[in-house]
Write a structure and sequence with these properties.
The complex is a heterodimer of chains A (about 110) and B (about 900). Helices cover about 55% and strands about 10% of the residues of chain A. Chain A contains 4 helices and 2 strands, in the order αααββα. The longest helix of chain A has 26 residues. In chain B, strands 3, 4, 6, 7, 8, 9 and 10 form a 7-stranded mixed beta sheet that branches. A 6-stranded mixed barrel of chain B has the order 15-16-21-18-20-19. Chain B is globular and about 135 Å long. Chain B starts with a helix and ends with a helix. Classes of the chains: A alpha+beta (about 110), B alpha+beta (about 900). Chains A and B meet through α2, α3 and β2 of A and α1, α2, α3 and α4 of B.
Chain lengths: ~110, ~900
Amino acid sequence: MGDRGRGELLPGTLDLLVLKALQLEPMHGWGITERIEQWSNRVLQVNQGSLYPALYRLEAQALIEAEWRTTENNRRARYFRLTAAGRRRLEHERRRWEELAGAIQRVLAVGG
Amino acid sequence: MRVLRSAVVRLGMWRHRRRLEDGLDEEVRFHLEEHAAKLERQGMPPAAARRAARLAFGAIDGAKEAVRDEVRLPIVEDFVRDLRFAVRTLVAAPAFSVTAILSLALGIGANTALFSVVHAVLLRPLPYPEPDRLLAVQILDEGDERGGGLSVADLEALSEVRSFATFGASFSLPGGVALTGDGGAEQVVASVVTPGMLAALGVEPARGRWPAAAEGRGEGPELVVVSDGFWRRRLGASPRALGRSLTLDGEPHEVIAVMPPGFHLPGKPRDELWPVLRLEPAEVRAPFWLTTVARLAPRVSAARAGEELTALASAVKRRWPDSPPHWSYLALDLRERLVSDGRPALLVLFAAVCLVLVLAGVNVTNLLLARATARGAELGMRVALGAGRDRLLRQALTESLLIAVVGGGLGLLLAQGGVAALAALRPAGLPRIDEIAVDRGVLVFAAAVTLGTGLLCGLAPALHGAFHQTSAVPRGERGGEARRAGRLRAALVVLEVAVALTVLIGAGLVLRSLQRLQAVPSGAGADDVLVVSLSIPEARYQEEAQVGAFFAALEERVGALAGVEAAAVTMAVPPDRLVMTNPFTPQGAVPRPDEPPPVAEELLIGPGYFDALGVPLLAGRAFTAADDAGAPLVAIVDEHLAERHFGGRDAVGRWLQTGAPHPDSPRLTIVGVAADVRYQGLDGPREGTIYVPFRQSAWWRTMYLVARTSGEPQALVPGVRGAVRALDPEVPLQEITTLDGLVEESTGSARFRALLLGAFAGLSLLLAAAGVYGLIAYEVQRRRREHGVRLALGAQRRHLLARVVADGLRLSAVGVAIGLAGSLLLTRLLDRMLFGVSPLDPVTFASTALFLPLVGLLAALLPARRAAATDPLIVLRDG
């Protein structure tokens, strides 16, 4: 249900972006949304309805871990953190994405 | 590794899914509030900000549902769902479920009960440390199947065997020992042991110490080791029991050890006392009476010990020229030696009970198969709608497993009862019967059998259900699949009939053997004979004259009791309490050195013996009180011996010599010939019997007293006890029984086998009948329409009935034919359990082959009557 004017995520990229968002520090769901939008200069908007299923899926795959913590303004929130397996997966997915994007780039450049 | 971790995480999430849901709610709430707060900071009014945040999030319930999907555990959840479904299905069809569950309960129960016997008797290790290092050492005479005891000379020689770490011997005292002193006179079951016996078995005493090797020789106080039970019963569980003196057979014995609970000598679970045996150095080779156990030295094989024993046997033969000519040492694994006699019968019983389980399993398979066919439409629909075949398979297996687990649980309860009943029977001839229990090993077996049965029973129906319903939605049960399933069911019922027939024939053979065995006359014709046994201690009755005087006085006193018609003492009683056999030389025989002399059963008896037992005297006279030590030596022989060695009744007046052949042996003049009496069991060998008056040969101190009465034999007991006490207050009565009781006891193991096999045969019959009934009833139900149409078109009801019954008969007939063929092959396994009946006994085969179809007929008749009673109107109207 995003804003039609802005970019929807390509299928399958949400997991990659979530892993990337968690690369530097543990973060809660809302923070991940904000981080992705901020880094993409508001081009990418995370579909909230699919963010939480994605988080639980990554957790079930043991790529991220969750724990309840208190936020800076004293609210309870679930913070997610990359596991070692998660870091490896992020690296793997990133490389795959770059290959894919490069390939598309080359296709589009033909005969420009 | 990650897969494993992921599985663990998933399982954790699944287990805590309640908490997870609550957490998710809180998380979403937090997300919405943060978003709204951000919008407010950008200047939106609070209410509008909250609405905008909620809109941006989208459908909250949809997101939650998606989260739930992520943490689902499909296998576990499916299983729970299948289980619920299976329970509902079973509850909805109680007749089906009860039949299936009871079938399996009976099958698994019988199987588990018998396995607990097999486990205790054949499989469980002996209760000694490193039991597989223990050997039974025996003497094997040429032509014997089983070994016998060793002599003192042999035991001395065994100390030269380097393969043995320790060895020792025991001897089970016939009638036990008389305990006198504090607490009253009592006969206690006991075996004498050499010090080495306890060391070889390796069980440390709970208190005290093993006797030292030197204490098995020479002088010093007599010692006794006591059981835990005796220590509690007679010594008040006193810690100061060690060193106490017990008077055993008139001699003081010092208690030097109390064994832990449950300790017993191999095969002798009832001993309470183990007096330490003191052996004098051997002067002759014989007699052979010691039960010997040896423990192998570390890293020595039993084969090596065997080689050493072979070499030793030759050395012993040279050392003792009076050795029997053809013998050798035999060292057998101790457990093997103990259980080998009981094994064939147990294995046959176990095979029979496995067949019962097969029957039960086939019944359940057939029921499930019938249902799978009936549910064909439903299953077809589910496949068409996209249900995975593996899901259908799993669901069907869940159902059969549920039946098996419930049936197995019930069966375990049945087995508990069965084991208690078996132990209460105390079948003679089964060693280690006291150890039988439903223990962990048995439980594991029952669980394995239950799961295995559940899977096997469910497999065919499940495969049928999952893979044979490809054609979209078959209507009813036409189609080739249903026909194929029908044929499979019929084949299974034929198999059931065949298996039941085999078990029935086996049981029939064993029952007929028992009948034949019980019809064998023991030779003692009298009813109402009291039999008691008693021993007089050597310490106070050393001279033959004393022994003779005691038993003569006893006969006189008991004979004078009111109600006693005849009384006598005897060394042995029928049908199987023989004490000794002895070589003999009949008058006129020329002993040949290369041929062993004939051997006969020998009994010392009193004058009234034949009268008391009702044994007819065929010629000559009975003994009298005048046949005493001062009179000419006399003997009475039985008809068998008279026929074989004296040409019939002319034996009277001729003579024979007993013992090893020697021209100077005293000659016993034969004064009478008695009818044959069985002393080695009703099915045992007959070697001929020599009776000798006890007054002329009073060397044996353990005698039976037999007294014939006009009334109830047990009523004589107080009088007999009083007579014994009047002669010697320190001599207790040992065994108290009757002649009938002895005969019954001697057929105990045959009755045990017949009882169990009979019970298994009954179960097989029941299960096979249920199988035939189930199949025919199902067919009748399936063909209701057809029957209705036939009736509407004018078919006769009795023709319909006959058709259905004929179907049942045809199944039975094919089953019987196959079963007969199988039985012809299998019953020879019973050969050793049979007596007077051939394994191919035509009477048993024929009567069973006729009887079983009769049962099949009855089983088919019930549904057939239902078929004939079909109301064409209702059927045609309802479809």
